[in-house]
Amino acid sequence: MKFPTNTALVIIDVQRAIDEAFWSQHGPRNNPGAEENMAAVLKHWRDTKRPVFHIRHDSVHADSTYAPGVETHGFKLEVMPRSDETVIGKAANSAFIGTGLEQMLRDQGVDTLVMMGVITNNSVEATVRHAGNLGFSTYLIEDACFTFAFPDYSGTLRSAQEVHDMSLANMDGEYCQVIKAAQVLDA
């Protein structure tokens, strides 16, 4: 798959916080190889010398695993930002709310986004939907994202894969094109 030269990689909330037991209270996550895929995509992206944007969740709740100042707030080693890469803190689910992300992308002439990160059905889905609504051509790497088991609205426990797949179905075709890491690595 070929991406225009003005394509940016956006990595959403891949912080140590996601490894805390709180997140898997209803069951295990899906895509156990997601971080490996993220690392491979990031290396490939850096090799092509295209822009990388690291989104960091800065929770406003002091007891959150994503609260600034706690050890788990830091990025996971697989996607650790380099000094020449942009880090954007956010307090909402979408990386476009209350941040300068949209303006930074527009200022750099970026109109195509490749996204990956966590949690598929939360900040990833919110950011992808927002990007699509803003008119960005958006691609989501489904095997470089993951989520956790969670009960649905009626109380039925859904596996992480079911939650992930429903989130992808919500986004694909309308807000983004869902792709695999191999498609990025083969570009």
Automatic annotation (TrEMBL):
Keyword Ribosomal protein appears in the UniProt entry: no
Molecular function per GO: hydrolase activity
Q: Where is the signal peptide?
A: none
Q: Name one Pfam family in it.
A: Isochorismatase
Q: Where is the Isochorismatase-like domain?
A: 7-182
Entry keyword annotation includes Transmembrane helix: no
Query: Coiled-coil regions in this chain?
Result: none
Keywords annotated in UniProt: Hydrolase
* UniProt name for this protein: Isochorismatase
